[in-house]
Amino acid sequence: MAALLSFLLVPASAQALEVILDTGEGQPAGPYLERLEGAEEPAPRSRAALPPLNDAAERMLPIEPSRLRVAPLQGQPPAHVRETLRNMPRPLCLVGSDSQSLAWLEHHRAALLQAGAVCMLVQAETSEDLERVRDTANGVPVQLSHGDDLAERLQLDVYPVLISREGIEQ
C-alpha cells in the first residue's frame, strides 16, 4: 500500500515515459488529444501534409472485404450493438474506392472533419485508388482496413457508412 501511495504522490513530471522502441511508423497523438480536450474543429490537413504511401500500405493492396458490399443501409443494428456504439471514442466511416463511396465521402467531408472522424478504406485495388480516396477525403484521415471484423461485430454488411455513438447512418 505504501508503494502505491508513493507512486500516486510523485509529481506527473517525474513519471515520464521511456521510449523502448520507435519504428518511425507511429502517428502523432496531438490531433486525438485535442479532440478529447475540447478543442475546436481541427484544422484540415493539406494534401501535401499527407504522408506518402509506405511499403506496408502497398503490401495490403488489393483490399476487398468479404462481408461488406456497396448498397443502401437498411435499418439500424440491434440494441446490443447500439449500446456498444455509445462507447466509441470517435466516429468512423467505412468507404471504398468505388464511385458511390467517393461521392458519399465528398458529400459528407465537412461533417466528417467537424466530427473528427477517421475513414477506413475497406475496398481498393491499387495505390491509385488509395490516392483518389485520400484526395477526396482532403483532410479526413484514411486508413486501410479489411473491415470484416468490425462488420461482423456491428452486424453490418454495407458501405459507405458513418459509425458513431448515435448509430450507423448513410
What would your notes on this structure say?
The chain has 170 residues and is of the alpha/beta class. The chain contains 7 helices and 7 strands, in the order αααβαβαβαβαβββ. It has helices at residues 2-9, 30-36, 55-60, 79-85, 99-115, 127-137, 148-153; strands spanning 69-70, 92-96, 118-123, 142-144, 158-159, 161-164, 167-169. The strands form 2 sheets. It has a 5-stranded mixed beta sheet, with helices on one face. Strand 6 (161-164) and strand 7 form a beta hairpin. Helix 5 (99-115) crosses helix 6 (127-137).
- Spatial extent as radius of gyration: 19 Å
Fraction in beta strands: 5-15%
Q: Assembly state here?
A: single chain
Low-confidence stretches: 1-27, 32-51
Widest beta sheet: strand line-up: 4-3-2-6-7
Number of strands: 7
Structural class: alpha/beta
Q: Main sheet, how many strands, which sense, barrel?
A: 5 strands, mixed
- The share of residues in helices is 25-40%
**Shape, please?**
globular
Report the total helices.
7
Give the averaged pLDDT, no decimals: 77
Order of helices and strands: HHHEHEHEHEHEEE
Q: In whole angstroms, how far apart are the ends? A: 52 Å
